[in-house]
Write a structure and sequence with these properties.
The chain is mainly β. Helix content is about 15%, strand content about 40%. Bound molecules: thymidine-5'-diphosphate (TYD).
Length: about 140
């Protein structure tokens, strides 16, 4: 979890994110999920190279991360926290509250070839690749 700076005064809060300072990569793309129906699940894939930070800009949701050995659920509900997801990690986003907005800052432009969309394909891929990021994630448990 990354805690972004928060500047508070009587007018409200302001947070900011600077590439290579609050997050460890250059931001190539920004996308956001919104109007997610209750009960819907997003994600359900991993990336070979792409790194990502997910932020609950509004509302709340769960992000389930899986490195092929461990699964861990992160509850996001504050816009000054981000969840860093390294490459080679399976992710699912669930339990979206109404009016939630999930902002993603990512290290690559859109490339379908970077996706691992089948869980078994993901398991094979991490077995056959040096998955440093996944091992680090495992160490946090
Ligand atoms: P998908 O990967 O299913 O979204 P999620 O990760 O939330 O489950 O993407 C849905 C569609 O949107 C799919 O056809 C690919 C497309 N898409 C883009 O064209 N550009 C993007 O930046 C993203 C994230 C998705």
């Amino acid at each position: 979890m990354v805690n972004f700076p928060k500047v508070s005064d009587y007018r409200g809060n302001l947070s900011f994110i600077e590439e290579s300072r609050q997050i460890p990569f250059v931001i190539k793309r920004v996308y956001y999920l919104y109007d997610v129906p209750s009960g819907a699940s997003r994600g359900g894939h991993a990336h070979k190279e792409l790194e990502q930070v997910v932020i609950a800009l509004s509302g709340s949701f769960d992000v389930i991360l899986d490195d092929g050995e461990h699964r861990r659920t992160f509850f996001l509900n504050r816009p000054h926290y981000g969840l860093y997801i390294p490459a080679g990690i399976w992710r699912e986003l669930e339990n979206f509250s109404s009016n939630s907005v999930a902002l993603s800052l990512v290290s690559q432009v859109y490339d379908e070839g970077d996706y691992l969309r089948e869980y078994e394909e993901f398991k094979r891929w991490i077995t056959n690749n040096d998955n440093r990021a996944g091992r680090e994630f495992g160490n946090y448990r």
